[in-house]
């Protein structure tokens, strides 16, 4: 999608600090990190949010979760864990309309959110 920030990152039109890339997914550090580990994992396919995943995306969604787990481990979160967050639309606090998982770790994160 031409006016999507994350599609532009996928296309290399906006720079990012990549930590992983394959044909299907891209992971990069969040520009405003909220924890010592804070990166975003996105499908390269433009899906606006988790509500718009379609039945045909089920396999992709499974691989997305699997990759989130793998990268969290690689980033040092195996022992103490991490938070995996998917914000959706305005009440969910979503600011970029391209499906993404936040992976946050490296410190204790309180709950519930404000
Ligand atoms: P959301 O609020 O939609 O769940 O999360 C969007 C995230 O994208 C925010 O944490 C924000 O800091 C991050 N972000 C927004 N623009 C950019 C950018 O151009 N580059 C990177 N690396 N992160 C971005
Ligand atoms: Zn997009």
The CATH architecture category equals: 2-Layer Sandwich
Overall outline: globular
The level-1 CATH class = Alpha Beta
The CATH topology annotation reads as: HIT family, subunit A
Distance between the termini: 32 Å
Percent in strands: 15-25%
Order of helices and strands: HEEEHEHE
Radius of gyration: 14 Å
Number of strands: 5
**Total number of domains:** 1
Tell me what you see in this structure.
By secondary structure, the protein is α+β, with helices and mostly antiparallel strands. The protein has one domain (5-105): HIT-like (HIT family, subunit A). It is 25% helix and 22% strand. The chain contains 3 helices and 5 strands; from the N terminus they run H-E-E-E-H-E-H-E. The chain has helices spanning 5-11, 58-74, 89-92, and strands at 18-21, 25-29, 37-43, 82-85, 101-105. The chain has a 5-stranded antiparallel sheet, with helices on one face. Strand 2 (25-29) and strand 3 (37-43) form a beta hairpin. The protein starts with a helix and ends in a 9-residue tail after the last strand. 25% of the residues are buried. The model has no long low-confidence stretch (mean pLDDT 97). Bound molecules: guanosine-5'-monophosphate (5GP) and zinc ion. The site of guanosine-5'-monophosphate has 14 residues, from strand 2. Guanosine-5'-monophosphate is lined by residues 5, 14, 16, 28-32, 40, 87, 93-96.
Task: Record keyword descriptors for this entry.
114 residues, alpha+beta, HIT family, subunit A, 5-stranded antiparallel β-sheet, 3 helices, 5 strands, binds guanosine-5'-monophosphate, binds zinc ion
């Amino acid at each position: 999608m031409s006016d999507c920030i994350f599609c532009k990152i996928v296309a290399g039109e906006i720079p990012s600090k990549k930590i992983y890339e394959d044909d299907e997914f891209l992971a990069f550090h969040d520009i405003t990190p909220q924890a010592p580990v804070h990166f975003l994992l996105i499908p390269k396919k433009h899906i606006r949010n988790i509500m718009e995943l379609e039945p045909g995306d089920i396999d992709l969604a499974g691989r997305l979760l699997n990759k989130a787990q793998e990268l969290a481990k690689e980033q040092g979160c195996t022992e103490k864990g991490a938070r995996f967050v998917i914000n959706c639309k305005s009440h969910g606090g979503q600011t970029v309309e391209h499906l993404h998982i936040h992976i946050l770790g490296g410190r204790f994160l309180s709950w519930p959110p404000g």
